User: Fold this.
Amino acid sequence: MVKINGEAKEAAGKKLCDYLKDAGYDSRAIAVEYNEVILPKADYETTILQDGDVVEIVCFMGGG
Assistant:
C-alpha cells in the first residue's frame, strides 16, 4: 500500500505519472512530495511507487 494524501492506496508498482493521470491530476498544476522530498517533474516518469511510500500531492489554485 502507498499512502497518498493520507489515504492508503493500491498503487504499488505503478509509475507516479500513471497514477497522477489515472487520478485526474494535471501535472502542470501540482507539486509532489515523495517520501518527504519534493520531486522534480522530470522524475514523475521514472518514479515507481513502492509499498510503504508516502506521497503528498498539492494542487495550485488561482483566484482573486
Remarks:
- The chain has a mean pLDDT of 95.
- The radius of gyration is 11 Å.
- Residues 16-22 form the longest helix (7 residues).
- Strands lie at 2-4, 7-9, 30-34, 37-39, 54-59.
